[in-house]
Amino acid sequence: MDYAVRTHNLTKTYKGIPVVNKLNINIKKGEIYGFLGQNGAGKTTTLRMMMGLIKASNGEIELFGQSQYSRDIYKRIGSMIEYPGFYPNLTAEENLEIHRRMIGIENKEYIKEALDVSGLDINEVKGKKVKNFSLGMKQRLGIARAMLHKPELLILDEPTNGLDPIGIKEIRETLINLKNNNGITILISSHLLSEIEHLATEIGIIHKGVLYEELDYKELQKRNKKYLKIRVSDDKKACFLLETKLGISDFEVSEKNIVRIYEGYDDSSRIAKTLIQNEVDLHEMAISVDNLEDYFVRLTGGHNHV
Ligand SMILES: Nc1ncnc2c1ncn2[C@@H]1O[C@H](COP(=O)(O)OP(=O)(O)OP(=O)(O)O)[C@@H](O)[C@H]1O
Ligand SMILES: [Mg+2]
Question: How large is the average pLDDT for residues 94-111?
């Protein structure tokens, strides 16, 4: 198996406290790897270590199969970590031109090509200063800059942050095209599963510095949990009855008077009968499926633990 990036027990501590803790990430070539985690989970810190911007406290990073690499390896990687900074009074092309010279690319055509793959409309941005760009246009320009030297791996830290749904969709399409047409491996971080769910082919979930799970997208979909949702007049009493009269223990109160029952719901008529016989009104009863966002929230302990 060919990997673009692998980490082995990658760790970063600040004042003795690990913010990235023994991370083992495996990103295969050609994948779009969604690196998912809530605010403060350790995403940016991890990506910075991968790019050699900060030093790991412990562990190893392997890039394109090499663990002892020279700095030349970064020529094969393009990145956009946190908000990209530009010269606001210059145009997109002028900004890219400065970057081209800085990184020593001779061929000026690369600028046009980078703008092309980023999905920016060349006619729209011609002569327009970057300070007049929308957020989505700036993000695309960030991608263009990261792509200027035609890297094999693109590392993007929350490129859809702050974008509206249309902007998110456009970035998604740009990235899928990059993968399909240019065969690029993409590592994209996000704190929202919904932003990467139709994009990522593999997902790694980081929580409080620890990699909880690494799974391919199909696997993640399989984990969607089915449950019976009931809306009742008294959730406490309903829970008591579920446990004592029906022997069901895998359930939770998701909102006031709404109970999700994860097991034993095949016999829903028995549940209904028991509740009603014991004077709990049943206002609603339906089989539901958790969406992926719920799965992520459940996995990372929900709101209480953030
Ligand atoms: N230079 C630093 N010194 C001390 N603590 C730091 C430093 N950089 C990051 N941290 C801490 O490390 C943790 C992880 O931060 P990081 O920025 O990697 O999270 P993140 O997943 O990128 O979050 P977000 O979604 O908000 O961007 C946070 O608790 C943060 O406060
Ligand atoms: Mg971050």
Answer: 93
